[in-house]
């Protein structure tokens, strides 16, 4: 039987090879299947990221693990795949994910007092290590809103990154002027000086949240400065929604059996695969497994 793997090895390899592993957020079965298929077709290691909101939407931790694991096996997926809790808001949430079978978790203590962030991260690291699972921590905050989690976007400090890295985490997310969701027209861009300093200070692979819609040259530069995992959600949601809109406005719902959900979602799944392949290429992780 095929199993999920910790994200540590794939991300360490990416750091050494100067590319970034794609973390694609999943929202349902169609999403998961599309991502797994494109990753397998292109022989690229991949991380399935699941937010607490998406877990709730799909039914719970066990549903997510059972569904994704069954797809891994039914679709004969042989490339390394990590199942990762995205923005775990509490120690309890991370433990529930790990107990259910997630192979990687993010403890996002950015909304807490820093001492509490340290305490929670430490507890999650101890718990995760017993299960050979990887841990992502967060320093500073990432701007924007994701599944009701609102961050004002606070640039991380070198001291905080060092303290979190010392707890034995595997990779680190840090606020470098990145934002979840769409970037506003007047966005200043990523703060590369900060990224460079934090990457050196932490000596850990760095994670770029809010990976949707960042100009290609900035993505490339960020990877060169230590970004080894890039999280994408909005961009795939946008391409999915756009083709469904087209399906509806072209009157396809009224064609023979056009109301069948399998017909409605088919172009959406194709759009996800196309965009995911484009991003794997951009991140340099196409064919890296
Ligand atoms: P986007 O929705 O902006 O792509 O961000 C995704 C993300 O960072 C998930 O953690």
UniProtKB/TrEMBL annotation:
<keyword id="KW-0456">Lyase</keyword>
<keyword id="KW-0862">Zinc</keyword>
<dbReference type="InterPro" id="IPR011289">
    <property type="entry name" value="Fruc_bis_ald_class-2"/>
</dbReference>
<dbReference type="Pfam" id="PF01116">
    <property type="entry name" value="F_bP_aldolase"/>
</dbReference>
<dbReference type="InterPro" id="IPR000771">
    <property type="entry name" value="FBA_II"/>
</dbReference>
<dbReference type="InterPro" id="IPR050246">
    <property type="entry name" value="Class_II_FBP_aldolase"/>
</dbReference>
<dbReference type="InterPro" id="IPR013785">
    <property type="entry name" value="Aldolase_TIM"/>
</dbReference>
<keyword id="KW-0479">Metal-binding</keyword>
<protein>
    <submittedName>
        <fullName>Class II fructose-1,6-bisphosphate aldolase</fullName>
    </submittedName>
</protein>
């Amino acid at each position: 039987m095929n199993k999920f793997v910790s994200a540590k090895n794939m991300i360490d390899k990416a750091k050494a090879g100067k590319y970034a592993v794609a973390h694609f957020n999943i929202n349902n079965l169609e999403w998961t299947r599309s991502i797994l298929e494109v990753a397998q077709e292109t022989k690229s290691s991949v991380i399935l990221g699941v937010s607490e909101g998406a877990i709730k939407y799909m039914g719970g931790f066990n549903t997510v693990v059972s569904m994704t694991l069954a797809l891994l096996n039914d679709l004969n997926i042989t490339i390394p795949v990590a199942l990762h809790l995205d923005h775990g808001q509490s120690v309890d949430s991370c433990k529930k994910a790990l107990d259910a079978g997630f192979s990687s978790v993010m403890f996002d203590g950015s909304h807490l007092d820093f001492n509490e962030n340290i305490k929670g991260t430490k507890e999650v690291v101890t718990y995760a290590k017993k299960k050979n699972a990887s841990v992502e921590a967060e320093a500073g905050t990432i701007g924007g809103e994701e599944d009701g989690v609102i961050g004002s976007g606070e640039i991380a400090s070198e001291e905080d990154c060092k303290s979190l890295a010392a707890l034995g985490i595997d990779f680190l997310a840090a606020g470098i002027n990145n934002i979840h969701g769409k970037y506003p027209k007047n966005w200043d861009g990523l703060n590369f000086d900060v990224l460079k300093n934090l990457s050196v200070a932490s000596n850990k692979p760095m994670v770029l949240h809010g990976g949707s819609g960042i100009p290609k040259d900035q993505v490339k530069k960020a990877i060169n400065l230590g970004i080894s995992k890039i999280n994408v959600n909005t961009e795939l949601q946008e391409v999915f929604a756009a083709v469904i809109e087209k399906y509806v406005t072209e009157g396809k719902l009224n064609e023979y059996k056009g109301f069948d959900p399998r017909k409605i979602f088919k172009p959406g799944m194709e759009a996800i695969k196309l965009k995911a392949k484009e991003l794997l290429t951009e991140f340099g992780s196409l064919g890296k497994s």
